Amino acid sequence: MNKVKIIFLLLICVLPLITFTQIDNTNCDLLHNGTFIYFYNNEKIKVTINENNHTEYHENGKYVIHSKLFWINDCEFVATCVKTTIPKPFYRVDDQMHVKVNRIYKNEIYFTSSINRNEWSGKLVRID
């Protein structure tokens, strides 16, 4: 067999491994502590995370949601609501929201969340 055929065969064997192997090198350290914002119904929501504590400030701090975080891994957590002052909240005390980071680009964190059989994707932007 000549060298061209050998190289071609190697490429045929190795290329699918490279193509179908997904390497997740997302470093989610920036999510564990910091101040972030996201937008909901054209309103800017401020979020602070301090390792296991999560607080959201709605309507410039008029309403808050406090949650405890349980980190499943570096890029995935469960937030259990411990207090909310939002009238008619989407979720209540003791409800658990699952959050998984899909990717990070600079200071933007793209995620998927689910709670009470509802799922959505969103983006947090780190501001500090």
UniProtKB/TrEMBL annotation:
User: Which domain of life does the UniProt lineage start with?
Assistant: Bacteria
Position of the signal peptide: 1-21
Keyword terms, alphabetized: Signal
Protein name (Swiss-Prot/TrEMBL):
Uncharacterized protein
Q: Which organism is it from?
A: Flavobacterium jejuense
